[in-house]
Amino acid sequence: MNLKIWALIGIVLSALVTGVFRGPWVALTTSIGTFMPEVFLVIVDRLSRNIAPVMTVRMPAALLSMVPILPMAFNERLRTVYLTLTGFTLFLVALLVMILVEVPIVKQIVTWAVSTLPGNWQQLRDRWQRRSLSSEWLPLSPAWRLKPAEKCNPLPNRR
User: Fold this and answer.
1) Residues 103, 106, 110, 113: what is their CA dihedral angle, to the nearest 10 degrees?
2) Is the pLDDT of residue 141 over 70?
3) How many domains does the chain fold into?
4) What average pLDDT is seen over the chain?
5) What residue numbers bound the domain in which 113 lies?
6) Is 101 within 8 Å of 25 (Cβ atoms)?
7) Please, which residues have CB within 8 angstroms of residue 131's CB and are 6 or more apart in sequence?
C-alpha cells in the first residue's frame, strides 16, 4: 500500500479514537458534578462496558496504522515523518494516561454501590474527570498531523 492509503487509514482510525475520547467528555463534563450518586454509578458502569471493548481494538489499531508511514516517508517526506512521530508519541501518552490513571479509577468506581460509596467519592470523581480531560486532548494530534503531513511537498532526498 502506498503512503496516501496508510495516511487515510491513520486519519480514519485516529478520528474514531478521538471521537470515543471526546464524546463522553463533552456529554458529561458540564453536568457530572450534579449527578446523584446512583446516577453517576450507572453512567460510569455503562460507559465502561461500552467503551472498553471498542478502545481495546481501536487504540492499538490507530497506533499501528502510523508505523508504516514512517519508512514510506523517511527518504522523501521528512515533515511527514516528524509529524507522524509527534502524533504517535502524543497518542502513546494518551494511551498510558488511560491505562495507568483512568482505567484503575473506573475499575474502582464500578465496584461501588450507593450504600458503599467512600467518603471521598466526589474527589475521586473529580480526579477521574480531570484525568479524562488531560488524555482527551492528546489524541487530537494524530487527526491533525496526518492530513497536513500528507499534503506537504516532498522534501529533497537526503544523500
Assistant:
1) 150
2) no
3) 1
4) 79
5) 3-147
6) no
7) 97, 101, 102, 105
